């Protein structure tokens, strides 16, 4: 009879198992993590209290059972079984073996297994100590961290892509700006050359036209003198008309030359008291003021950075036009200025004949005239000169008017360089 079937053999094995239980139980109960003690056949010799509490099982359904038969066979993993079977004969160990399983009662858990051989006292057979650590929360945290890291990586990549796109857009904008600056520089150079050419052309025209005009004017005066009393009134009228046409042409040439030289022949800007400028202009217009009987109301004017001579020309032109284009009622002119943010807004207001609002822009074009030149003489260049002067000073000029209601001319000059108080 074999030992497995002899009464003595069975009793000896039971005694050995009992002693092993007593020996191992003292060890496993001291550990807070779930522990199993297995024999060489992978039967459960004992389990600690933590094992029963963790998996909600009882000793009678655990002890003396094969480990791979426990519960819903959660430990019946071929690779784990092979590793456990090698521990006693080969004295190997298991470290960090993960088991992710849906356990009875407690649900899905991730357990980390570590196992090693333990020697029995005396002639007792060696056993296997299997320790289990619940790392479910750690794995969940790792998974959460992994997802967060992936999300962060995704956002970083998206942000990097956005920044790359922004950088590319910025690079294009910078390149476009540089290109615009180069074009602006080219245009500025072209404008400078154009202004120089315009001035040279105007000078040449004025020089080439003045001489024959002087000759024509001289011969007309000589003709008028010699024919005095010898021709009828109609002939004298023709001569007078020709002389006036020559004089008007000479004035137009002077105005064209002045227009072309506004930017190139203007003086450096300096602190200019506009009250003094207006005083000089009113003195120059004294005769016209007296003849027209105009009443001029003036308000205090500021001190600005300007070309005093050019600024005087603006006032003279605007006041001269107000006097020229007066109506039958007593003429009143008001001159003043008001601070608006970073600039001064000047105004010259009259109660003259006025004009249609649609004409308030075209009057600043060269040679633009709204009225019969026989009634209102002039070259049609004065306001164009004013516009160019004000633009040179960094401002703008415009008019507001209605027929029969008079006109108000406005122009602005920057106030950032205003003379400091005191």
TrEMBL record:
Gene3D superfamilies according to UniProt: 1.10.287.130, Histidine kinase-like ATPase, C-terminal domain, PAS domain
The reaction(s) this protein catalyses: ATP + protein L-histidine = ADP + protein N-phospho-L-histidine
Domain of life: Bacteria
Presence of the UniProt keyword Kinase in the record: yes
SMART domains in alphabetical order: HATPase_c, HisKA
Example GO molecular function: phosphorelay sensor kinase activity
EC numbers on record: 2.7.13.3
SUPFAM superfamilies attached to this UniProt entry: ATPase domain of HSP90 chaperone/DNA topoisomerase II/histidine kinase, Homodimeric domain of signal transducing histidine kinase, PYP-like sensor domain (PAS domain)
Histidine kinase domain ranges (all copies): 204-417
Keyword Phosphoprotein: yes
Alphabetic keyword roster: Coiled coil, Kinase, Phosphoprotein, Transferase
Coiled coil: 138-197
PANTHER family xref list: PAC DOMAIN-CONTAINING PROTEIN, PHYTOCHROME-LIKE PROTEIN CPH1
Entry protein name: histidine kinase
